[in-house]
Amino acid sequence: MDPKHRRRELTDGRFIPVLGFGTFAPEELAKGEVETAVKRAIDVGYRHIDSAYLYQNDEEIGRATQEKMADGTVKRDDIFYTTKVWGTFFRPELVQTGLQRSLRKLQLSYVDLCLIHYPIALKPGEDFFPRDTHGKIISDPVELCATWEAMEKCKDAGLAKSIGVSNFNHEQLEKILNKPGLKHKPVCNQVECHPYLNQSKLLEFCTSKDVLLVAYAPLGSESRKAWVKKNHPALLQDPVLGAIAEKHGRTPAQVALRYQLQRRVVALAKSFNEERMKENFQVFDFQLTPEDMESLDGLNRNMHYMDDESYLF
């Protein structure tokens, strides 16, 4: 990590801030709250904003970032913006269309990072989750390597400065990396990652290939959310995490985030509460000991909070 700028270098020579602000919001949350939260996050110091076409909040994020640029808080070059192309745009001829939809709503000419959101192509159309008469998701027979070639063209066109993937396993990522004629390798793989799911094998593989691992849900997730598996223990209430936090005079959330940074993983913190935003950003002025890291590694249960099957199968 570049300690001065709190960022890591990607394989294409660009830099990504090691702590990002996640913007996914449940449907019941007013869109205006997303806009307010992004403005607060920028004021707190976040410069890495993570979103996706699927989140349906590009317009709000665009207004927030435009306002903070207009008032002089940040310049465009200060903001690292990530978006994701959704599965209904995975046909090569549709990839750029999907990205440009986001760009128009964001009021941006480019994003800093564009990801393949999920390694499953879906039937093109306006439905995010197209289903047949039996309620089964309708996939699309598109090769991920073909989608990746279209992503490369988006990079070459300057619409995305860097490109990567999200929710890919070892084999899916390797398929892209081994693609004949690969022009631009994925700079990162964004996956669910926290002490209960530390992704150690995937992290080792990604590191060996110079692919950065980016962690979403690094603090776990709340079971009340529709896409989260029920009856899972709350990560931030774990006694081991709590004891380490108490030892350092920190919160369990700060320790969970610091854990990822010391593993050379980029972490995406999501909270729309201003005080927690500030707390989550205060992870650069303390260090976990090797013993702390070993204890946190020991919490791994290979436990996913995100229930992909609830909406994709």
UniProtKB/TrEMBL annotation:
Keywords (A to Z) from UniProt: NADP, Oxidoreductase
Entry-linked Pfam families: Aldo_ket_red
Residue stretches making up the NADP-dependent oxidoreductase domain: 19-300
InterPro entries, alphabetized: AKR, AKR1C, Aldo/ket_reductase_CS, NAD(P)_OxRdtase_dom_sf, NADP_OxRdtase_dom
Origin superkingdom: Eukaryota
Family (UniProt): Belongs to the aldo/keto reductase family.
Protein name: Prostaglandin F synthase 1-like
Gene source species: Vicugna pacos (Alpaca)
Top-level taxonomy: Eukaryota, Metazoa, Chordata, Craniata, Vertebrata
